[in-house]
Write a structure and sequence with these properties.
The protein contains 11 helices and 10 strands. It has 338 residues and is an alpha/beta fold. Strands 1-2-3-5-4-6-7-8-9-10 form a 10-stranded mixed sheet, sandwiched between helices. A hairpin with a 5-residue loop joins strand 2 and strand 3 (68-76). It is globular and about 60 Å long.
Length: 338
């Protein structure tokens, strides 16, 4: 089998290269406390797009730092007799929550659906800024020259958990049957959401981004989605005198270090030819998950559509319909599973 990374036997044991800050758990406990102290002031605005069976709304709330954050919210028009499942959805890097129509499959089955717009990307959420250093591009390195509390992805990670909590509080939603899903950046945010909101029951992360930055750097893959790592060193540390400090600070927003907090059942989708989010960076997070998990492998695919995987994610989330779903149930049949 062609390789762009470690052999599969080594990937299954790989524990990551990026350092974990000594105060990592305290940092995130304090960050969650800050988030929970905020009155989100949720506002629902009807969207122009509507269907006979599904109500479509723009949902706004106040996140950490005072930003107004936006998500698309879809819910059945007819109130259910009992609370029903929900899914929260996260998009790829630089994108947005997308169109309404592709979320209707869940909403038409009675699910509440919330799709986040990440701050400062292509959607409606606000990026309030306020940190020193680069703001031209590069959300990974936004805030890297200040205290770690100013890292932009800290705020976005907290937005995922805050949105999930808002959805869980809705009277039509069963807080024990909420799933999270996304690919690339959305896959990384799915893991962050499940880690910071442990009531998430199921999480489907497809080739997750935002993991094991030092490994990406050492593989000379600081390009494409990770190109800003190279730009940062070229602009602000051209002799790499602060390299260890930089990667340790990035450790606060490395999803592999959040992975042990996850209590959800997790489904991964990974292409072994991925040169955008290399397999080892994905396995670094996967191998640290201690809850029920399984991974669908696509040996000949990279960071691209994985045939049949969207259907597998949908079937995985359909299990939320059954309140008695066994978290250790068999993985769906299909591609190679580990």
């Amino acid at each position: 089998m062609p390789l762009v990374d470690k052999p599969l036997a080594e990937l299954k044991k790989y524990e990551g290269r990026n350092p974990r800050p000594a105060d990592f758990d305290a940092f995130w406990d304090q960050s969650l406390a800050e988030m929970k102290s905020i009155d989100p002031q949720v506002e629902l605005v009807p969207a122009d797009f509507q269907t006979p069976a599904v109500e479509c709304l723009h949902m706004y709330w106040t996140g950490v730092g005072g930003a107004r954050v936006h998500a698309k919210l879809l819910r059945p028009r007819q109130a259910p007799a009992a609370p029903q499942p929900a899914v929260v959805i996260f998009h790829g890097y630089s994108g947005s929550s997308g169109d309404w129509h592709d979320k209707l499959a869940y909403a038409n089955l009675g699910y509440t659906v919330a799709a986040l717009d990440c701050r400062g990307q292509a959607g409606r959420s606000h990026d309030v800024g306020g940190t020193p250093g680069n703001t031209l591009r590069g959300h990974i390195i936004r805030g890297l020259d200040g205290a770690p509390q100013g890292l932009l992805f800290r705020q976005i990670f907290l937005d995922t958990a805050q949105m999930a909590g808002i959805v869980m509080q809705m009277s039509t939603v069963d807080e024990t049957r909420v799933g999270a899903m996304g690919g690339s950046q959305g896959g990384g945010l799915t893991l962050a959401c499940a880690a910071l909101e442990p009531r998430i029951a199921q999480a489907a992360a497809t080739f997750p981004f935002l993991s094991d930055y030092r490994r990406v750097w050492e593989m000379d893959l600081a390009k494409d989605a990770y190109h800003e790592l190279r730009e940062y060193f070229r602009w602000f540390d051209p002799q790499h005198k602060r390299e260890d400090e930089v990667f340790e600070k990035l450790g606060y927003i490395d999803v592999q270090h959040l992975a042990p907090r996850i209590r959800a059942e997790v489904l991964f989708g990974t292409g072994l030819m991925d040169t955008i989010c290399p397999p080892s960076s994905q396995f670094a997070a996967y191998n640290k998950i201690v809850s029920a998990k399984h991974m669908e492998l696509y040996p000949d695919f990279g960071h691209e559509g994985l045939p049949g995987h969207g259907d597998r994610v949908f079937q995985f989330m359909m299990r939320l319909q059954d309140a008695e779903t066994d978290a250790a149930a068999q993985a769906p049949a299909g591609a190679a599973v580990i």
